[in-house]
Predict the 3D structure of the following.
Amino acid sequence: MVNNLYIVTPRGFCAGVEMAIKALTWMLKIYDETIYCYHEIVHNDWIVERFKNKNIQFIESTDELPKNAVLMLSAHGTAPVIESEFNTISSVQVNAVCPLVTKVHHEAKKFTESGQKIIYVGHKNHDEAIGALGVAPSSMFLVEKEEDLEQINIANEGVALLAQTTLAMSEWKPIMDSAIKKFPNLNMPRKSDLCYATTNRQEAVINVSSLVDVVLVVGSDTSSNTKALVSTIKSLGKESYRVNTTSEIDKLKLSGKNVAVTAGASAPDHIVQEIIKKLEPKNTEFFENTNETEYFPLPKELRSNITTLSNFLLEIFPNNKVDPIRSVNKDKQWTATEALSSL
Ligand code: SF4
């Protein structure tokens, strides 16, 4: 049994994850055939399993997509060349990329078109970094740590700095400072590439950390922003663990400690609630740091086709699962948690 438990807000689903889960749920309701999804729709094991059980097939390359298949591109963003290749194979293609990842793709395109070289701070094998670096492969250089900057041999002028949206601020800041020193006229976007969900969740755990002995972060190993939350706390010299399921709590020595619980941007809240229950806290408090109101509409391909498609499918597939009440206009009132429960 833990002593005081602080449940941190904001935690869990961000607007991009909400949109991507709802978009894939819509696809399941509209199409009877197997739907292919390029990369995990969001980086959470439970959600990916849930969709796999519902006839979604996750693929990692264009070779795996059958001709004329229905395809969704994940929230993490896809390299333009891969997207074009998929276009020639698929019959329907919906891109559930988060608009904040698209922003970074636009910046990469803009800087490259103006003849600049780009240093991109990110994680080598992460889907988002792979997609972003694919925007301008010959003029973008991946940097994972400060020392990598030394290996980059480019002119000092005409250099821009971009980042993966889900980095830890404690990881990003030293690299940014070193890059500014090395390239004094470095160009950067006006607004940080680290997204609001990443920074809000990190600021919240930084602020709660002085009240607790341990911070638990709910999320999967594949989730970059989850791991960034853990490293943010560890960089403050505090204990922090990533937990994906309730069974992982058993091996942690939490008895009598003050604990905070948060969750990465792709972690479903029911897992957080199960973990809270398992912790059997003496006292529970809510630690509200920021109230998030961001909302991202469904992908435009889905929005523009959904009404027509729904009516059409109602005519030709009497057994289809389209619920006409769930119109695109009502999407804002429908949560990803409800979408997952409807599967
Ligand atoms: S973590 Fe940020 S960039 Fe990633 S999906 Fe959420 S809002 Fe978008």
